[in-house]
Amino acid sequence: MPYMTTFLKKWTILINETLCPYHEALGRLSEQEIGAIIHESAEEVENVRNLLVDYLVTNPSISDKQQFVKVNQALLIRLLDKLYSCRNDNVPEKVLSLYKALGSHLKGSLDFIEDFFGNYFDKNEKVPVVYLDLTRAEIARGLKKLTFVLNSGCVEQVLAKAVLQPLKLFSSGKVVKTISYASLSYHRILLDELISQKPMSTQTIRKTLYQLNFNELAFVDFEFERLHALIELAQGKSEKIAILRFEQKTIAQYPEKLNTVYDPTMASLREQVNGWIEAEIKFLENGQAAEKEQPTISDTNEKINTSLSVAKLALIIRLLVVDKIIINRTVAPMLRVISKMVTTLQKDEISFGSLETKYHAPDKATITAVRDMLFKWINILGKL
Fold it and tell me: C-alpha dihedral over 84, 86, 87, 92, to 10 degrees?
């Protein structure tokens, strides 16, 4: 372990000191000196690989192996990110070629660990920025093809939007959270599986999303709304329960890829859908009579008047749902209630369809405006 650290320390010193973009001697490096650095770095790659193999073969402790790989994986990732951040317009072309060569060597060592010691590789570790750039470009290319097929009319548009929106967000680089190896791998697998569906239909897409545990909020909402629509058409309690049980059985029989999930911080897709079905069946079996219709707030003059636009209101509601402040099982009924209760700056009567559309697909200008509003609220809080 100490020997491995020594070799990686050479790279660390080289990148943090000699090759720092603001180092005064950087621009004076000759072609011969640059060639010598690249040659020495290439030799370090071989040394690192040999040390990795020696340590992992001779050390019988699994926990030691995991720790060894974890530490060196993290060091190589930090070095790659540091080297990537060194690139700027003020760096001479010959130095940029040096950065590229060193990056290739570091990436080669990291890939070697992932390929040959995958059982110990930490999939929850952040991905180097250079990997993200390459993979996002690859995903963006595949996304164009998927968008064309999904928008051709063979798949329900609400479902198409639920699938495409997170992929577009990811490929755009606007995701603010740290991207892990597991998340990066998931997006690639998701895109590949969706593109390969033949024939492509709402049913085949749903089956694939269950297989890959796509527990994204918009798709969960889509499933709740689909189930709600099915039982709304049924006649009587027994038929409603039979439909829900059949859907539950069908979902349970979908194949499932192990250790695969879109958002590991949320309950799995099956858990959420099964929970909704069980709650609905319990309600039906208890024989609770429907509540008498009460006059809605929209029937009176008492409404909550706001100076928000429909887009801003929809986005604020989405934030409350994502943060689990609003915990309604389904989104659409909640939005219907809000559309009847609230007025906006432009409208006394909000269209449910308009509110729902802007809820699921907030535009960039609205996101920026709401972000500014939240900063203003922070300042107001300090004065309360």
Answer: -140
Chain centre to alpha carbon of residue 269: 15
Sequence-ordered list of residues with C-beta below 8 angstroms from that of 284, at least 6 positions apart, any chain: 237, 240, 241
Locate tokens 């994986």: which residue?
73
Backbone angles phi, psi at 307, to 5 degrees: -100, 15
**CA pair distance 282, 289, nearest whole angstrom:** 13
Torsion angle in degrees (nearest 10) through CA of 228, 231, 236, 239: -140
For residue 7, the one-letter residue type is F
Burial classification of residue 72, based on how many CB atoms lie within 10 Å of its CB (0-12 exposed, 13-18 middle, 19 or more buried): buried
Separation in Å, CA 306 to CA 125, 176, 210, 341, 357: 44, 30, 40, 11, 19
**Angle in degrees, CA 184, 112, 17, rounded to 5:** 90
Which portions of the chain are predicted below pLDDT 50?
1-2, 288-300
Q: Phi/psi of residue 237, each to 5°? A: -65, -45
* Cβ neighbour number for residue 216 with a 10 Å cutoff: 20
What per-residue confidence (pLDDT) applies to 253? 92
- What's residue 175's pLDDT? 67
Task: Report the sign of the C-alpha dihedral through residues 69, 71, 74, 79, in that order.
Answer: negative
Both structure tokens of 295: 């006059």
Rounded to two decimals, the pTM is 0.66
